[in-house]
Give the backbone structure.
Amino acid sequence: MEKLRCVIMRGGTSKGVFFHENELPYDLEKRKEVLLRVMGSPDKRQIDGLGGADILTSKVVIIAPPSRKDADVDYIFGQVGITEPEIDFSLICGNLSSAVAPFAIDEGLVRAKEPITKVRIYCPNVDRYLTSEVRVKDGKAVYEGDFRIDGVPGTGSKISLDYSGTAGLITGKLLPTGNRKDIVDIKELGKIEVSIIDASTVVAFIKAAEIGLKGDESPIDIEKEKDLIDLLENIKIACAELANLTGRSPLLPMIAVVQKPVSWVNFVTGKKMKIENVDILSKIYASGMMHKAYPVTGCVATGAAARMKGTVVNEIISEKGKKDDTLIIGHFSGTIPIKAKGSEIDDEFKLEKAIVYRTARRIMEGYVYI
């Protein structure tokens, strides 16, 4: 058996296995085989590997010295298939991105500068940059703190991530269809409105009422309704065709089911959520299941859509959400805020700010046997 050095890290509400690039084969097919073996895929339980049998934990990250002079580190993300022997390297994981800078600092790839170290991250697979700011002490990232994010127990050190440079990341355009709102015709449903936004990832936004959801459903409630999951998948397929995404990634577009806030029960804590400060309620469908929290990449797309007049999201958000610098998104496991700002120039929207705050934790370092 061979062994590879790795680190397991939580970033936001996701968890993944981190590698230095030189630990892995340079041949991409061999690299894929090794990573599938590491995670225990394909297997719905991933029982023979490090995967957690969930879209939030079946992830790998590859970190390397910067390939560009204007970056501090390279970051490659892989979403590992659970039941299929596939790894999608064409995306970035917004939540796990929050663990990239701490990893790079702790591993000596980036020199720590107290009290805050700014790390410019280049994502070669998507040709985009992220900027992260991390609190440091004695040459290492600080993980302890009093900042809390929903979907993760306890508190941690606040990490900022700026995604303003990720507009058009997948398709090259913030509006892949050229429209702020389109109509798709779904066989089981008829015609529905949809807004497809490409900012950090591609998300198709639909209104909850269009598919019969009230807003207080849990992910388990939705996933046990096979007809509803099939309907969401068919909407995804139709939106992929509309945005010219067919065959590019099995994850895209994500489907965000949005509505005005109603009272709901936090999926993680079991507590009833207050809706007074929530601007929009959203549920994400991706990869055949409901996201149990909210992907940061989806948060960025939601923030961009909220600032664009004429989108499904902009029509739904509260008046406070339209005026405030920060948008509060309600999801299955709580809320997530995003500072989003943009400007309209000649009917064209430019995303100027998309800042999300997360926490991260170094959980384990050692060797994985393959």
